[in-house]
Amino acid sequence: MVRGRISRLSVRDVRFPTSLGGHGADAMHTDPDYSAAYVVIETDAEDGIKGCGITFTLGKGTEVVVCAVNALAHHVLNKDLKDIVGDFRGFYRQLTSDGQLRWIGPEKGVVHLATAAVLNAVWDLWAKQEGKPVWKLLVDMDPRMLVSCIDFRYITDVLTEEDALEILQKGQIGKKEREKQMLAQGYPAYTTSCAWLGYSDDTLKQLCAQALKDGWTSQRSQFPRARLFLFHLSALLSLQATSFPHCSSALLPSDSRLCRFKVKVGADLQDDMRRCQIIRDMIGPEKTLMMDANQRWDVPEAVEWMSKLAKFKPLWIEEPTSPDDILGHATISKCHNRVIFKQLLQAKALQFLQIDSCRLGSVNENLSVLLMAKKFEIPVCPHAGGVGLCELVQHLIIFDYISVSASLENRVCEYVDHLHEHFKYPVMIQRASYMPPKDPGYSTEMKEESVKKHQYPDGEVWKKLLPAQEN
Amino acid sequence: MVRGRISRLSVRDVRFPTSLGGHGADAMHTDPDYSAAYVVIETDAEDGIKGCGITFTLGKGTEVVVCAVNALAHHVLNKDLKDIVGDFRGFYRQLTSDGQLRWIGPEKGVVHLATAAVLNAVWDLWAKQEGKPVWKLLVDMDPRMLVSCIDFRYITDVLTEEDALEILQKGQIGKKEREKQMLAQGYPAYTTSCAWLGYSDDTLKQLCAQALKDGWTSQRSQFPRARLFLFHLSALLSLQATSFPHCSSALLPSDSRLCRFKVKVGADLQDDMRRCQIIRDMIGPEKTLMMDANQRWDVPEAVEWMSKLAKFKPLWIEEPTSPDDILGHATISKCHNRVIFKQLLQAKALQFLQIDSCRLGSVNENLSVLLMAKKFEIPVCPHAGGVGLCELVQHLIIFDYISVSASLENRVCEYVDHLHEHFKYPVMIQRASYMPPKDPGYSTEMKEESVKKHQYPDGEVWKKLLPAQEN
């Protein structure tokens, strides 16, 4: 049973100096320091349980998100957790529709990232008090209660409360079997650990060779840092080639375990062609190659560029242009809220949908997107990586399979092997699959030691680095 | 000639306690304290000229925007103004595409508001150094130089650099005459000073009666604060009824000076019907009534609600749903960047376009939107009000008439009679028109005394108010 009144909220700026090694670099984000605004909420209950929430950022600007979390704090403090989860839709709306704060969003950018961090902490607290991981809390929750967590504002033209209830009720059929299956086999993953533009050709070749040699069938801990695209996604054999006009639409072999590679493109065409050639030469003609332009292009530029890259037969092209461009979009997109996702679905502008556990408004808003995707029968392939995105999103996608989509066809969850060592309950990958977490909560809790060390600008790591960077 | 290196950037949180009087309240923003993040930049030049920039906010959250301005400051400091304006597109892109900060936007919400404040200050500085108001700086600028201020990323599928140049070159024809006309007659305005939901029926009736009695043909200073919709928009007689399916499409009389009223709706249908009835009874069947729902509705709700309000014959319905909803939109919209405007134009989803001097990325991004509107032949009717929005946007719309649209047909600029007394160069309204400002700069400079008094939380005003609000 939920208990306690929220008595304290703290938020810290935690940054990892990933830019030093070129990790995470893409066409638009050339020097990211993977970072998080890290929220901890405490209650006056005697159990001492804390809720931890994060949102992912790229270094500079984390202090702005921290400032926004503090601006939201008064909506959380002194509330009974029982009242929050008893009217979670109302609470969500209170956070996102504050009469004054709404102006600096609404439901996008800094304020929405801050909202996600706060709500992620609330979900972690709730699940911990119930003694369940978040995915299990969701799977066991009555459909009516689930629906009461969702704010349907701006999406009722494609998904009403009744639609949502109907989908969830249908999802009850076969739920137990799917839960067993998840516990035994996990949810299929692909990884993007080192498609980064920051790596040299030699590093790329070396990591690619190693990935091909190793495959990805054993546990994460046996692997070195920063590896390239690790795959063997047995559950994913029938992913279709997309309808992007200049991409290959060759049928993919469906009878073998595939290696899947994702490469960042978009900064320089000649460079992209050389890198794609290296990879395609190494992986051969049959293995799957995905591309991600990270919003680099205009629409005509995307068409021209991809017509040149088409010969390397990409499966999909991710974020070819502005995330605000519904009409210019193609294939697959990360979005900032449910309204943008709704339109991409309405406009039939995407063939795969990428949810994000920290850019959308936590579990609540992701639930609405999972349900809309189900209604439109678009497979969800979550965005992950960063700091903690894998830890969080696994709960959502496992719930999606057990209670909503009931299908693994064309579905796969991104995995990046970075920074998991800073989490108290890190993801567990086995046989290229996310194994369902068993610890109570949302897997959001970081090790206190890591947080202290990486706090910006006063943690040990930054105290050493900053003077060096200034010289 | 531009001169000097930016040697200092300061930013302050300035708030006016407008919520105390119910001013500015609408369906989504029930208790706004009109506020600004106020930026001042200084150079090492001996002239002592400072550039002032603002972005408009609603109270809480201003501190988050202030924090974002500080995060952007390093892009401005120690730059030569000559280098900034010499490659203004490059500088704009540097601000909006910072490899780390971009993640917490991009080009939307807090970061974009902060970008606007910084760039507004740069434009003010530039114009002051040239000894011209911003509108005149723009009007006199060579089309190639103008185009070099615009970032075309994400919009080249509807507007290329060549398109823009062609439009601006055509705009040279008759420019001198239009400039003379503006200086003599000004740009037509309408006002929304008190359509606010925060006012009682009695206040509404009283203000409405007074507005009808007074008309709006004399100078602003002769009018009391917080007046209702003041009109007599002689230049605007042929505005068409919109295509919103349930709105009146009766032809408007085109041979008389019209009173125009805008009413905020969307919080409570019965309440809206009563208020609209009061206004329509007072103004009679011929005068124009506009409605603004401030993003309150879902799409089906907007259709149902407006079918009930249709009998009051609104001219347009503003922001019926989420500003992110391209496909669900109707008629008129304020947007957060050029990419959203582009799509609304592509989707033929609006009949009037509202630019905003502080939500978009300053003059630079507004230029791109004005040019796209010209290409699609959609009339621009700027959003104004708030703190300083009128002061800024008048420069853009006067430039638009002289150098881009060359038309006043169906065009009008919003005016709200709030808080101008805090500005050093306040707007001048004559015969219901914005008279072109003559002082050098962007009219963004506030009176130092006002800033000091209203700084949050340490200014005199807040030192008195805050303890009272806590009790």
Shape of chain A: globular
Strand order of the largest sheet of chain A: 10-4-12-11
- Mind telling me the C-alpha Rg of chain A? 21 Å
Largest interface: A-B, 61 and 61 residues
Mean pLDDT of chain A: 84
Query: What oligomeric assembly is this protein in?
Result: homodimer
Query: DSSP helix count of chain A?
Result: 16
Portion in strands of chain A? 5-15%
H/E series of chain A: EEEHHHHHHHHEHEHEHEEHEHHEEEHH
Uncertain runs of chain A: 216-258
Structural class from helices and strands of chain A? alpha/beta
Outline the biggest β-sheet of chain A.
Answer: 4 strands, mixed
Helix content of chain A: 25-40%
What is the tally of beta strands of chain A? 12
Distance between the termini of chain A: 55 Å
Structure explained in plain terms:
The structure is a homodimer of 471-residue chains. Chain A is an alpha/beta fold and 471 residues long. Chain A is built from 16 helices and 12 strands. Chain A has helices at 62-72, 81-86, 88-96, 109-130, 134-140, 143-147, 161-170, 175-185, 201-214, 269-283, 299-309, 338-346, 362-376, 389-405, 448-454, 460-470, and strands spanning 6-15, 35-43, 50-57, 187-191, 260-264, 288-292, 314-318, 332-334, 352-354, 413-415, 429-430, 433-434. In chain A, the strands form 4 sheets. A 4-stranded mixed β-sheet of chain A has the order 10-4-12-11, with helices on one face. Chain A has a 3-stranded antiparallel β-sheet with strand order 1-2-3. In chain A, helix 10 (269-283) links the parallel strand 5 and strand 6. In chain A, helix 5 runs parallel beside helix 14 (389-405), helix 8 (175-185) packs antiparallel against helix 14 and helix 13 (362-376) packs across helix 14. The radius of gyration of chain A is 21 Å and the shape is globular. Residues 216-258 of chain A have low confidence and may be disordered.
